[in-house]
């Protein structure tokens, strides 16, 4: 797993390799870069997915805060350090907010954005439970059954388990989630490059009404609805996800 030294620390990342156009993929809260392995495989050989472990997640070790500014700065530095600009940026959930904020705040670095199942509003006014309280959850456990018996965690968490221990710090995850709460309409509307918005019909984070409002406020947005999928579209409906992404990028 390659690493990249940035001002705030060492970032680990996954690189699908090949000669295709690079796609910087940013995961959601509690995830890590390897969560995009299935999507990366499906986008080859035309597209090469590069997926970092974001600050506070996976094997990445950083100093500093966990607010929006830090996540956007990390993404910008990744694009610059790897010479990807202008880049295609794909973001799921937390990573989706970072993706469109990067495009809004550093437009010279981004040529297209894919936002997976997250809105321009991520607080209580649009989301029933914007923060999952993980304080007091076990970090070590003997097996997955023990972990799921003790917590309401989704299966997605297992991607961040190594030798029976969660890779992330639970207090840090609270800070990450709190920092992602807000109404980000100014960033959403400021994006000038093409955007694809993927929405899951069974999403708990992006309602049909909010998605429609996002398209209305920013007309150069293509929306694709993935039927029967939950929030983790790239895991639950990988073929449909890859097809939508490839069709968008090919245009």
TrEMBL record:
Taxonomic classification: Bacteria, Bacillati, Actinomycetota, Actinomycetes, Propionibacteriales
Gene3D superfamilies from the UniProt entry: alpha/beta hydrolase
Name of the protein: Alpha/beta hydrolase
tRNA-binding as UniProt keyword: no
Keyword Hydrolase among record annotations: yes
Gene Ontology terms for molecular function: hydrolase activity
InterPro entries: AB_hydrolase_1, AB_hydrolase_fold, Carboxylesterase_BioH, Epox_hydrolase-like
Domain AB hydrolase-1 span(s) in chain numbering: 23-243
Source organism, top-level taxon: Bacteria
SUPFAM superfamilies documented for this protein: alpha/beta-Hydrolases
Sorted UniProt keywords: Hydrolase
């Amino acid at each position: 797993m390659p690493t990249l030294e940035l001002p705030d620390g060492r970032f680990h990342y996954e690189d699908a390799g090949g000669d295709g156009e690079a796609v910087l993929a940013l995961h959601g809260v509690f995830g890590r870069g390897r969560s995009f392995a299935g999507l990366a495989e499906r986008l080859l050989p035309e597209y090469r997915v590069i997926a970092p472990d974001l600050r506070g997640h996976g094997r990445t070790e950083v100093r500093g805060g966990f607010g929006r500014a830090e996540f956007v700065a990390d993404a910008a530095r990744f694009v610059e350090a790897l010479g990807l600009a202008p880049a295609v940026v794909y973001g799921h959930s937390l990573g989706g907010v970072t993706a469109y904020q990067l495009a809004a705040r550093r437009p010279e670095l981004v040529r297209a954005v894919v936002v997976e199942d997250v809105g321009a509003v991520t607080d209580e006014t649009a989301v029933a439970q914007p923060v999952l309280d993980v304080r007091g959850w076990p970090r070590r456990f003997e097996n997955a059954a023990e972990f799921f018996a003790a917590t309401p965690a989704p299966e997605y968490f297992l991607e961040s388990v190594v030798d029976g221990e969660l890779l992330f710090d639970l207090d840090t995850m609270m800070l990450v989630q709190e920092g992602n709460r807000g109404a980000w309409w100014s960033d959403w509307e400021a994006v000038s490059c093409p955007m694809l918005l993927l929405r899951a019909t069974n999403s708990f984070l992006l309602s049909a009404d909010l998605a429609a409002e996002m398209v209305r406020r920013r007309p150069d947005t293509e929306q694709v609805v993935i039927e029967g999928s939950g929030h983790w579209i790239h895991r639950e409906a990988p073929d449909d996800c890859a097809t939508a992404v490839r069709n968008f990028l090919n245009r």
